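quick one before i forget lol
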Amino acid sequence: MADTSTQSIVIAAPPDQVAAVICDFARYPEWVSATKTVEVVEEYEDGYASQVRFVLDAGVVADEYTLAYEYAEDISRIEWHLVEPSKMQKAQVGSYDIVGNDDGTSTVTYTLAVDLAIGMLGMFKRKAEKMIMDTALTELKRRVESIGAGK
């Protein structure tokens, strides 16, 4: 498996609001810039998505893939893995860990490991991973805080 990258961000909202945005896959195209379509393929009995199909188009990178999700009982951890290889990926394993802070904010830690199906020099791959993670966390923060401000 590929090297694992980890980044964190503080979001001005409690953990349950952060988890609600992460788990609302149908709305990803509204706020995740590279996401074109998202379809929940299977759900657990409790209504949480167990498999989700993504169609991404980030210009130079386009891919279609399905991720299988698992959740901690209190939704403080959301983890996933690639169901089968795609055009761009051999494997993907990731997670969000959401921790509530004393001031009402949440620290979200995003961990990701992607094994690409195409060759890429290490330094370019690390730069791409950093950009993907920066964008994902920034867009998540923007979405959660804009929803919180609307309440």
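fyi The first strand starts at residue 5 and ends at 11.
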